[in-house]
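Hi W., the magnesium ion complex you wanted:
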Amino acid sequence: MLELKNIKKYYQVGDTVTKALDGVSVAFREKEFVAILGASGSGKTTLLNVIGGLDEYDSGDLVINGKSTKKFKATDWDAYRNNSVGFIFQSYNLISHLGIIDNVELGMTLSGVSNAEKRQRAEEALTRVGLREHMHKKPNQLSGGQMQRVAIARALANDPDILLCDEPTGALDTETSVQIMELIQELSKEKLVIMVTHNPELAHQYANRIIEFSDGQIRDDSRPYNESAQSDTFKLKRTKMSFWTALKLSFTNIRTKKGRTFLTAFASSIGIISIGVVLALSGGFQKQIDETQSKTLAQYPITISQQATDMQAASAENPNKTKKLSKKGTQITAKVSAQEKATHINKIDQKYLNYVNDINPDLSNNIGYTRLVGMNLIRKVDGKVQPVTFSSAKSNSSNQSSAAAMAATTGVGTSSFPKQLDNSKENFLKKNYRLLSGAYPKAATDVVLVVKSDNTININALNNLGFDVKDGTKLDFNKIVGTKIQMVMNNDYYQQLPTGNFIPSTDVSSLYDKPNNLTLNISGIIRARGSSNMDLLASGIAYSDDLAKEVISKNQDSAIVKAQKASAVNVMTNQKMDSTTKQTFLSTLGGSSLPYSIMIYPNNFKDKDKVLTYLDKWNKGKSRADKITYLDLAGTVTNLTGGLMDAITYVLIAFAAISLITSMIMIGILTYTSVLERTKEIGVLRALGARSRDVTRVFDAETFILGISSGLLGIIIAELLTFPINSLLYNLTELKNVAILDPTQALILVLVSTVLTMIGGHIPARMAAKKDAAIALRAE
Ligand code: ADP
Ligand code: MG
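Structure:
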């Protein structure tokens, strides 16, 4: 049934050629117990490996059941080893991380035997070798003899035709050796058993044929067999390992080295950790930057004022020119100051206002206007009518009589809230301010009281509104909400004296019921939302730009405005005025429909640049005097933080990339080490008929497990790290919750870890698969 024809196998190392098999010709019977005796190094193991298809022969032919193996492909050899041959080694070669039953089942697993049948056959085989009670142990819980019995059971389980035993008793004591020999002898009654031994006594006692072997040649054969084997139909079932089996094999292997696997996963998760942290941080920082940007932009909007400083003109001042003026001599030189030279009057007209109003609402949703309009306000306090103002400035009671003068002297802050460019979007107040009491303003005549984050309010704002409060006085919301204020029109408010001068009416109570009055209503109390970056409004009364516009439209043609337009001096005080002062005063009286300044609040710095480009377009081709300059205080901050953040991001990304590469290399090395370490196991798997692809699978499965666990471990640690990082950052910068790991990013990271790990481990896995099975088995 098995015949070797002039088989030669030479090993060449350097210049020396070892003739391991030097023309071996021998035939074996279907059932016999052949013992091969020979000195160490004579080529016995090589012979067994060649017979078992673990090692290739150089020349000659191995004929199995009449079929030449010259044209055998790798898969044919795999199938042959799995179906027809059982190996028993001196060093047992059990896979230590698998249980005894699993070891026995492994060969059947490879040939695709069903689970139930596998278990049954494994139990039968183990019973046969007398290990029924030890079935559920691990190999390292057995004695040497018992382990060899397991190896025999493993060889038997797949019911092979040939049993190849390489010094099976070499590591056993005499008593155990005898037991094993008896077992093998019994098996030889139904199979061909070829046993290599260097113990002639045992050989002579149990074997029925003895072959003396030396220097790769058969010296003596006690019972030669010359009958040429007849050609049977020789069919072999292909072997195949499922990925699931590979996964299970790797999993049990990994489980036996929990500590090391954990360390490995931890080490290779460092890359994932660092990327996770970088992502969490950069995402968080981006959010912070966006917030800071809109905060900065809320504080420093693009401002277009009627009076601006032309930065270019200011810096154009050439110091070299002034040098030419002599320091000596007897003359002085009159000089306009640099600051004054740089003062630029922006001619803001309706056309420009329309241009600004056309800014893309996606870039900037809010535009604020400052109008120097004064409001003539009176209120009934305890039945007594008294003048009031919306100002938060400290005022002398004597001065309070002229609200208009008040506004002119204190200047007007941002008491009117920004106009919402895009009406479809949320209202500015609702978005940025929380309603504490009452209602958000609906009509133009609805005004709101803005309080600070701690519900305090500037005492002057309350006093100016006619509330008699001292430092620390508490007022109920309902005392304020619903308060009615009368706004008196100029023609009712100002009286013209016979001299032609105008003075505010002294009898304020008579003004209270004038039909032209606008009744203003404090509709609610609001406070900036914690999340809002746009808390533009100072504490005190805030009103809509529509109200300001309405006052202007009503007062534009009033007597005092007309008179003031015609006069070079102040119509109230007769003071002389230059054109700027006159213009300002006219505005205060409601005589100008144009705002004093425009504040544009872009959403972020990028959008700000686009808005600036848009504003620059207006100036194209215009003369210097007609140009409209803006103030961009936030611009100076942009360049600073922008560049810095870019640099930091690049550094972080570089770090993350380095750790990713490092962890990939590490996985490669670890898989390689694992390959080296499991060389024996590879040999055993191959001896049991595993294809080289199956071996690759085992290691791929291992790196798969490793990749997933290091990915999971990585994101868990990264997530945990965000807590100390956040508290550290909070201590350093007062920024809350900067690092936040995005779940989608976390999932992607696990995937990346798995894929990269598998890539890193695949090369060593392929190396493992290519390993020569015979060499693998010789490894210690
Ligand atoms: P035995 O089992 O009889 O002790 P072996 O079959 O293991 O002998 O080895 C036979 C000879 O072949 C020895 O001289 C050994 O050194 C040599 N040999 C075996 N395998 C290799 C190999 N992979 N490369 C080089 N020489 C080898
Ligand atoms: Mg040997």
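Confidence is low (pLDDT under 50) at residues 397-414.

W.
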